[in-house]
Design brief:
The protein has 114 residues and is an alpha+beta fold. It has four helices and four strands; from the N terminus they run αβαββαβα. The protein has one domain: Trna Endonuclease, Chain: A, domain 1, CATH 3.40.1350. Strand 3, helix 3 and strand 4 form a beta-alpha-beta unit.
């Protein structure tokens, strides 16, 4: 059975919060996706929700980066145009990684933090 992006994200968050307990409050997910009514979608857009916002944000600066964004994908899924644009707009000031597995996420987090 193919792993869903939701399952991958839960595994990534569980691993991070176990491995980096001191930083557990510094990692977050913005519930940006999902099905919404047109009214609710318009409300969230007016409140500042951005299409393409990555799955995980880590609010720990390192080196020249103000934090890190992680976009999670599974299988043959690829970035949407909005996701590509978001990451490109932030890549100079924020570490940005696309991870297709828990192992890739672990490598990206450890490379960023260490």
């Amino acid at each position: 059975m193919k792993q869903s992006e939701d399952d991958l994200q839960r595994a990534c968050m569980k691993w991070f919060k176990f491995q980096y307990r001191d930083f557990a409050k510094r990692i977050s997910h913005c519930p940006n996706g999902g099905k919404r009514s047109a009214t609710e979608g318009a409300k969230f857009k007016a409140m500042g929700v951005l299409a393409g916002y990555p799955d995980i944000f880590l609010s720990i600066p390192r080196g020249n980066y103000g934090g890190a964004y992680f976009e999670l994908k599974t299988g043959n899924n690829s970035l949407t145009e909005n996701q590509e644009e978001f990451l490109k707009a932030h890549e100079k000031d924020y570490y940005c990684a696309i991870c297709y597995s828990l192992d890739e996420f672990i490598t990206a987090i450890n490379n960023y933090l260490n």
